[in-house]
Structures are given as C-alpha cells and as structure tokens.
Design goal:
Order of helices and strands: HHHEEHHEEEHHHEEEH
Structural class: alpha+beta
Helix content: 40-55%
Strand content: 15-25%
Radius of gyration: 20 Å
Largest sheet: 6 strands, antiparallel
Strand order of the largest sheet: 5-4-3-8-7-6
Distance between the termini: 39 Å
Number of helices: 9
Number of domains: 2
CATH topology of the largest domain: Beta-Lactamase
Shape: globular
CATH superfamily of the largest domain: GAF domain
CATH architecture of the largest domain: 2-Layer Sandwich
C-alpha cells in the first residue's frame, strides 16, 4: 500500500459518529501498525489535516480541509445547488430527499432534507450508500460508462438485508432495466422499511455527476405514489443540471 493510500485509510476512520480517535484505535481501524500510523499523523498534522485535541490525546480532522473545501465549492458550487434542490423537492413531495455523488464504494451524501412531519426516513450524511443496494447507486451504474461500471462491479459486494442483490448478472439486468426507463427503484435492499426512487444528473462528464433520490417508507411506496413523485424528481434533476451547466439536458 502506498503512503497516500495509507494516509487516506487513516482519514477514512473519522466520521460524524467518530470525530475524535486515539492513535491505537486509528492504527487498528486502518489496519496499520502503530508506528506507521503515528508517522502519517505527524505528517498530516504538519499540513493542518489532523490535529490533537490535547498533548498526547486523541486526533481529529484539522483546518486544512476547510481551505480545500472552499476552493472546491468555489470551482464547482455543487453543494450549494444541491442543498437548494433538496430543500425545494422535499417541500414539494413531503418526503426525505438526498443528493449523492460517487465515491470509491458507493454514493456519498452532499445534501439532504427531511420533512417536518409524517413518517420520515432518516439520513446519516456520513453513511456510504453502496452502489448495488440503493436506488442512488443503481441509477449511477445504469448511466455510467462501461469502464466505470466494470470497475465498480469488481468491488466485493455484501448483503445488508434478506433482499439485498449481490450477483453481478442480477445487478446488470436490473441496471439495464433502469437505464431503459430513466429512473431506478429500490425496496428493502439496503435498509428494511425503506423504498426509494432516483435519477442521475450530469455536467459535461461521461459519467453522471451525481443522483437525486426520494426515500419513502416502504408501506407508502406504490405505483400511484411513484407516478406522483417522478415528475417532481425530473424537475429537480433539471434544476441541478441548470445550476451546474446552464442547460437542463445533456
């Protein structure tokens, strides 16, 4: 494993649920020895990417990421546009809405909004949504290039519910169907009691930039509800693409 890969492995252990981590725990979680982990932390601390809470204490993410995040957002203001879109769509459908962008193993949430009333599907923003188990991931795969799709499908897949789909042939058949119809659906495949629909949005890249999904309690998702949600989901996609490119369709 290269040094940069090791450093990323260490950084990946931080989350909203684990904002501060000790040296020994970081080493164990990242699968590295303690001495190597310490060297990586010292190097990253020098550049502001991690910091110690107190002398000899636990580590947390540093201020260095703020500068890079601001540069990224100034270059492509996707997060601001995404939050405006999720707020608008959630108000329209009175359901949980989330927008994700692709990561190494799944979709990462960059914006979400939950309705103030009704049966709400909770979103954990730091949770990676596996490509093969979620409507977001499946519709991304459906519209990704062959190269991207094959790379993702080579990743080891795991089940999280009894209805999780992990066979490659089944996934390929499913995403081909979704590509033909332009949207995806999932039901109890990642989390029991949750159904969702999703569509991709694009900029000038060959692969989708991200996806917009509406999550609904499983008992409330039927064909009639899907038909109600689809036009508004399509409008949200148009809003995102207009924000990113100035055009609604690619």
């Amino acid at each position: 494993m290269k040094t940069v890969d090791k450093a990323m492995s260490v950084l990946d252990q931080f989350s909203m649920e684990r904002t501060e981590v000790g040296l020994s725990e970081l080493a164990t979680l990242a699968g590295l020895d303690k001495a190597a982990t310490r060297r990586l932390l010292v190097a990253m601390a020098k550049h502001g990417f991690v910091e110690q809470v107190a002398a000899g204490g636990r580590y947390r993410l540093g201020h260095g990421f703020l500068r890079l995040a601001r540069i990224r957002e100034a270059t492509v203001p996707i997060v601001r546009a995404a939050q405006e879109t999720t707020d608008w769509l959630s108000a329209k459908v009175e359901e949980t809405v989330h927008i994700g962008v692709p990561g190494e193993k799944g979709m990462t949430t960059i914006a979400y909004c939950m309705p103030s009333k009704g049966n709400v599907i909770n979103i954990i923003p730091t949770q990676v949504l596996p490509f093969h188990l979620t409507s977001s991931g499946l519709i991304y795969l459906a519209f990704a290039t062959d190269e991207t799709r094959e790379r993702i499908l080579s990743i080891k897949r795991e089940k999280t519910t009894d209805t999780s789909q992990i066979r490659k042939t089944d996934i390929v058949r499913t995403i081909n169907h979704f590509r033909e119809h332009g949207y995806s659906q999932s039901r109890n495949t990642f989390e029991k009691g949750v159904a969702s629909i999703a569509m991709p949005f694009f900029d000038n890249s060959l692969d989708p930039v991200g996806t917009i999904a509406i999550a609904v309690p499983d008992a409330n998702m039927n064909e009639e509800r899907v038909n109600e949600l689809l036009p508004l989901l399509q409008e949200a996609i148009a809003r995102m693409q207009t924000s990113l490119t100035g055009f609604q369709n690619q």
